[in-house]
Design the sequence.
């Protein structure tokens, strides 16, 4: 049996990064940038007005009214401006030759055919200088950053239509168990609906990866091997159920019969002790327990960091906050217990309320929760004690 940290280390040492590819900007959103994005241009490309106002040469001011010689909206071609005159200019228009200063409309007053300046003016004011925002050759987004709205916007502003990014992991999901019913079937005594595959698929999508459903394998070695082999076409396989010590738990045997290298089985934690991890060729295979909460907790701790690493992410683990428990909690078992709870921000810091029912078969302990609190064996905490709560969203 390994610890949570040992299991994570073994997994992260083995999972390979996925290939990178250039993809259209919208498809790149949510992926990780594979190469530094470098601007081939200065931005702004020319000195540009930052205000709707008037542009002129500061040194030609002589206290007299300035005749206005033209109008320059954004997008128009600028023509040179004679010293001692001003041009009406709009925000975003290039500052024309002969001008170095802009005053906003509100700081001027009309005077015959021209204007007078009503406020104090500084030379060069309200002009965004060429290269002030970005310098040619500068890295504007570093490799390893997650691509979001601002990053695709930046790429578009450089004239690009695609970005080099890591591939989305294709994650095959296999459920095992004779008791399982297909989704949509009414649950009945002794039979349960396969909820794990859809739960895990939703988590996979949230990470920016792509789920692929392998369906349900009956409790039979050959049936499990056939489905598992189909999953090896994907970038990773996640199996649920059939990984404990039961007479019909065939998952480990199926992995090994396909030539897989079993790297660990059983992690010292609750829920989710019977977790196995294997490499079958280059494909990581995660065998999670069938209990729905154990499967989701196993996904959080082991599958999520692995998929993130494969997809080029640098931050692989969830953030934690120090939080006050709102009621006494205890772990009477001999395994570290990951309690599901709900963290809220309060005036005096974060508080976490641990779900009342913590059975690993009870999805209800997770549906209302947004955090996991690790309680060591035999720990007993009073209300108000401080814990680390790992935030799940
Ligand atoms: N003698 C022992 N028995 C068990 C041990 C043990 O150490 N010794 N460990 C227990 C723990 S802890 C867990 S967790 C479970 C995990 O067992 P398996 O991974 O083999 O899972 P199954 O037995 O196939 O299923 C457990 C449970 O989960 C339900 N299930 C299975 N698949 C799904 C699915 N796709 N969707 C929803 N629910 C599913 C299944 O019906 C069972 O109720 O083993 C303990 N036993
Ligand atoms: O590890 Mo199991 O999830 O305690 O039931």
Sequence:
């Amino acid at each position: 049996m390994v610890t949570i940290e040992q299991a994570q280390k073994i997994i992260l040492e083995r999972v390979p990064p996925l290939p990178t590819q250039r993809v259209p900007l919208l498809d790149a959103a949510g992926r990780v940038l594979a190469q530094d994005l470098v601007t081939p241009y200065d931005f702004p490309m020319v000195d540009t007005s930052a205000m709707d106002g008037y542009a002129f040469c500061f040194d030609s001011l002589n206290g007299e009214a300035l005749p206005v010689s033209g109008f320059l909206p954004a997008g128009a071609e600028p023509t040179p401006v004679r010293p001692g005159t001003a041009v009406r200019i709009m925000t975003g228009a290039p500052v024309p030759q002969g001008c170095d200063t802009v005053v906003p409309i509100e700081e001027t007053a009309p005077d015959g055919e021209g204007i007078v300046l009503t406020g104090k003016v500084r030379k060069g004011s309200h002009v965004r200088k060429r290269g002030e925002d970005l310098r040619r050759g500068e890295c504007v987004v570093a490799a390893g950053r997650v691509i979001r709205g601002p990053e695709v916007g930046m790429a578009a502003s450089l004239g690009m239509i695609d970005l080099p990014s890591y591939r989305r992991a294709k994650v095959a999901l296999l459920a095992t168990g004779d008791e399982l019913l297909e989704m949509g079937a009414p649950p009945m005594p002794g039979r349960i609906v396969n909820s794990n595959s859809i739960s895990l698929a939703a988590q996979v999508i949230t990470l920016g990866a792509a789920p692929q459903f392998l369906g349900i394998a009956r409790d039979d070695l050959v049936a499990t091997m056939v489905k598992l082999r189909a999953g090896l076409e994907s970038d990773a396989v996640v199996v649920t159920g059939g990984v404990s010590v039961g007479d019909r738990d065939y998952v480990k045997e199926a992995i090994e019969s396909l030539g897989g290298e079993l790297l660990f089985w059983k992690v010292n934690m609750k829920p989710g002790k019977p977790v196995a991890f294997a490499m079958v060729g280059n494909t990581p295979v995660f065998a999670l327990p069938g209990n729905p909460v154990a499967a989701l907790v196993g996904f959080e701790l082991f599958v999520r960091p692995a998929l993130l690493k494969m997809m080029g992410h640098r931050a692989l683990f969830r953030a934690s906050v120090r939080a006050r428990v709102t009621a006494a909690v205890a772990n009477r078992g001999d395994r570290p217990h990951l309690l599901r709870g709900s963290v809220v921000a309060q005036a005096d810091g974060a508080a976490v309320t641990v779900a009342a029912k913590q059975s690993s078969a009870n999805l209800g302990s997770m549906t209302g929760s947004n955090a996991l609190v690790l309680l060591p064996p035999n720990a007993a905490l009073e209300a108000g004690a401080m814990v680390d709560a790992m935030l799940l969203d």
